[in-house]
Amino acid sequence: MEHSAFGDQSNATFSITDEDHTLANAIRFTLNQDSRVTFCGYSIPHPSDALVNVRVQTSGDPAREVLKDACLDLILMCRHVRSTFDKAVDDFKANEGVQEQNIDSKAIEGVQALDIDSESD
Amino acid sequence: MAAAQEEKREEKKFSIWDLPDVPEKLPPHLEFARTRVQCNLDAPVHTESITYSGAYASMRVDNSVQLDFFQEKFRVEVKRLTKDDMEFDLIGIDPSIANAFRRILIAELPTMAIEKVFIANNTSVIQDEVLAHRLGLIPIAVDPRLFEYISENDSPNEKNTIVFKLHAHCKRGEPRLTVKTKDLIWLPNGSEYLLEGQNPDSSSSSKPKTYTSFSCSQDSLPEFANNPISTLPDITIARLGPGQEIEFEAHAVKGMGKTHAKWSPVATAWYRMLPEVVLLEDIEDEDAEALVKTCPVKVFDIEDIGNGKKKAKVARPRSCTLCRECLRVGEEWEKRVSLRRVKDHFIFTIESTGALPPEVLFTEAVKILEDKCERVFSELS
Ligand code: SF4
């Protein structure tokens, strides 16, 4: 829900239900990154209400559009995080197989070395 | 001639026209405050994260993280990955977003957990409610994405409920019996307890009503056919003395960690910022020995620099725990060793309870943050 002064769309407070610091803090970050934003912040009026108020003040553009862009930015960032993470995990799994083999062969060498030692004793 | 050239160069050094129109970089002290937390003996400084895009506008430096810039710089490095825990580095991300992932992992990823316990008999020393609470915390190794949430008006069916039963009896004259989670038996056909007023001997064609209404057996579903649902096997539920007996049925449903911690899919999920340890001056001989000895996690090593001289070097900064012992070696050591944290480099650790592997948990958490944004976006449109 949006609360803003009649006729002035560049300053507004948005009440988002069923959300908390998780989303609000991340959104505040992306809003802050937008050069059209002159002020933004969020508050949770009461800790047992699932409600967060996000305040957006811009240098002219409609606050609603700026907030939408912030959401979009966050979505794109998340997508990028996800694809990078998946790739890193796949790479790690692929390399891990090789590494494990190496460790094994080393361990075997170690055992053989030990055997030789004990024989010479 | 040479002198003239020298002079020219000198002149050039001071020419104002050589300064770039738009400086690309902040002066070093501001760049340091922006990217590092400095940990002094008494307290850390520069702890805030400066996110406002115009924070350095007076210096004509853009502080915004443009998306393409983020995509260029962001990196993930997996350090350890096992069946149930992993450690990886998120590099080039803001704490607000890393923290959102952490919070979602703990509180907003669904799992299955025992919610209702029907106790038929309990003569053990554990009270019913304590037993029920213990059962709730048992991790169930099943993919929660295969199930639906159950709401108050729903009847429990094969899509939203998993039923286990347990019957343990310690006979007289026998040693004490430990009841473990592997004694829980999965009931793919749902509850076996009849609702009150039902006559088990009635010969009517319809099945007698139980506490669940499964329309088909869960093991006839393709996802569970060769993959029976189980709990982690070796957790002690109770100990029975001779003559004691426990018999109950437990119903597990889908839920989220913010309702109750038993639904949290992670034992823990946490991050720490990458430590950076810098020696501001050369530390040699006895001082070096003292420094190496003082660090409990062996961050420093000694390096031979020839002529029988030794020098301290930073070998394993990643394991620094920020105990600050190295600043207490002696007076003025704060000026010799600098402890820092890199603000946008997170060492993330996830320990899964067993329902899903940790790498899947993280991707699911990122997806949930995306869904949240999408919801707000569509509500505003
Ligand atoms: S703060 Fe503690 S762990 Fe870190 S380098 Fe100093 S002595 Fe070692």
UniProtKB/TrEMBL annotation, chain A:
Pfam families given in the database record: RNA_pol_L_2
GO molecular function: DNA binding; DNA-directed RNA polymerase activity; protein dimerization activity
Keyword Protein transport set for record: no
Keywords assigned: DNA-directed RNA polymerase, Nucleus, Transcription
Domain DNA-directed RNA polymerase RBP11-like dimerisation: 12-83
InterPro entries: RBP11-like, RBP11-like_dimer, RNA_pol_Rpb11_13-16kDa_CS, RNAP_AC19, Rpo11-like
GO BP term, pick one: transcription by RNA polymerase III
CDD domains xrefs: RNAP_I_III_AC19 (cd07029)
GO cellular component: a single term: RNA polymerase I complex
Gene3D superfamilies according to UniProt: RNA polymerase, RBP11-like subunit
Subcellular location: Nucleus
Family named by the database record: Belongs to the archaeal Rpo11/eukaryotic RPB11/RPC19 RNA polymerase subunit family.
PANTHER family given in the database record: DNA-DIRECTED RNA POLYMERASE I,II,III, DNA-DIRECTED RNA POLYMERASES I AND III SUBUNIT RPAC2
Protein name: DNA-directed RNA polymerases I and III subunit RPAC2
Organism in which the protein naturally occurs: Acer negundo
Automatic annotation (TrEMBL), chain B:
Principal cellular location given in the protein's record: nucleus
Highest taxon in the source lineage: Eukaryota
InterPro entries linked: DNA-dir_RNA_pol_30-40kDasu_CS (IPR001514), DNA-dir_RNA_pol_insert (IPR011262), DNA-dir_RNA_pol_RpoA/D/Rpb3 (IPR011263), RBP11-like (IPR036603), RNAP_Rpo3/Rpb3/RPAC1 (IPR022842), RNAPI/III_AC40 (IPR033901), RNApol_insert_sf (IPR036643), Rpo3/RPB3_RNA_Pol_subunit (IPR050518)
Single GO MF annotation: DNA binding
Keywords annotated in UniProt: DNA-directed RNA polymerase, Nucleus, Transcription
BP GO annotations: DNA-templated transcription
Domain DNA-directed RNA polymerase RpoA/D/Rpb3-type per the UniProt entry, residue ranges: 85-379
A cellular-component GO term for this protein: RNA polymerase I complex
CDD domains: RNAP_I_II_AC40
Subcellular location per the Swiss-Prot or TrEMBL entry: Nucleus
Gene3D superfamilies, sorted: DNA-directed RNA polymerase, insert domain, RNA polymerase, RBP11-like subunit
Signal peptide (residue range): none
Family: Belongs to the archaeal Rpo3/eukaryotic RPB3 RNA polymerase subunit family.
UniProt protein name: DNA-directed RNA polymerases I and III subunit RPAC1
Species of provenance: Acer negundo (Box elder)
